[in-house]
């Protein structure tokens, strides 16, 4: 079986091959690349196969000019290099920092969370409304998927402990913005499935190893009135 994964030793050589292909105005063959870089053709072929598998290089057969097999040539795949570093943490800090300067940052963050909570929760057919137990289960499943490690409090059905925060470092710095966003996620999710319970509050770092979500029955002004479910979401 051919090994195409990239170890630390492979990385410089594959990068050198990729740069040689990018410098060339025409596709190059194995022999040309081997001569340019001073490495064995079999080594070049091995790394080119890996680069093709990774989607960084395109392999093509050129029409022969005479008798013989068509020449296999390689060219860099068009488009931005997708193998570089990502800076999503920095992006999150920039956006949270900007949001935190607004006069009502917590309300804006919660509103954003509500919209995404309604999108992320597993939907329920409009022909029925869920019980409190099913609503809690679906909320817990969503928060598990997001990485919060939720754990229903053993002493009460009105609390959920969040044992992990997937944005911990950001939450420690921007808790006044990020925690309302998390609360909004849960409120939006429960509203979307017409749950008979609501997330009333979130206590950040209420315990040394957990945040606490408080749940309570939904209050309605008219008996039997339930929030309408939104449809046609692009999931």
Automatic annotation (TrEMBL):
A Pfam family the protein falls into = HTH_20
Question: Matching InterPro entries, A to Z?
Answer: ArsR-like_HTH (IPR011991), WH-like_DNA-bd_sf (IPR036388), WH_DNA-bd_sf (IPR036390)
> Which portions of the sequence form the region Disordered?
60-82
Protein name, UniProt field: ArsR family transcriptional regulator
């Amino acid at each position: 079986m051919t090994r195409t994964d990239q170890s630390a030793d492979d990385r410089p050589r594959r990068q050198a091959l990729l740069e040689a292909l990018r410098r060339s105005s025409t596709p190059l063959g194995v022999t040309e690349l081997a001569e340019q870089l001073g490495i064995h053709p079999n080594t070049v072929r091995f790394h080119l196969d890996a680069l093709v598998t990774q989607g960084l290089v395109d392999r093509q057969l050129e029409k022969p000019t005479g008798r013989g097999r068509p020449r296999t040539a390689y060219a860099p795949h068009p488009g931005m290099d997708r193998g570089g570093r990502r800076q999503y943490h920095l992006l999150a800090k920039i956006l949270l920092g900007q949001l935190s300067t607004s006069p009502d940052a917590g309300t804006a963050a919660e509103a954003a969370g509500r919209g995404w909570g309604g999108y992320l929760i597993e939907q329920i057919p409009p022909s029925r409304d869920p019980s409190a137990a099913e609503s809690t289960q679906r909320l817990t499943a969503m928060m598990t998927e997001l990485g919060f490690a939720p754990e229903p409090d053993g002493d009460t059905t009105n609390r959920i402990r969040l044992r992990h925060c997937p944005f911990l470092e950001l939450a420690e710095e921007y808790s006044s913005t990020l925690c309302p966003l998390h609360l909004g996620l849960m409120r939006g999710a429960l509203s979307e499935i017409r749950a008979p319970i609501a997330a009333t509050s979130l206590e950040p770092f209420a315990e040394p190893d957990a945040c606490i979500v408080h749940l309570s029955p939904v209050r309605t002004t008219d008996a039997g009135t339930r929030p309408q479910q939104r449809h046609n979401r692009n999931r």
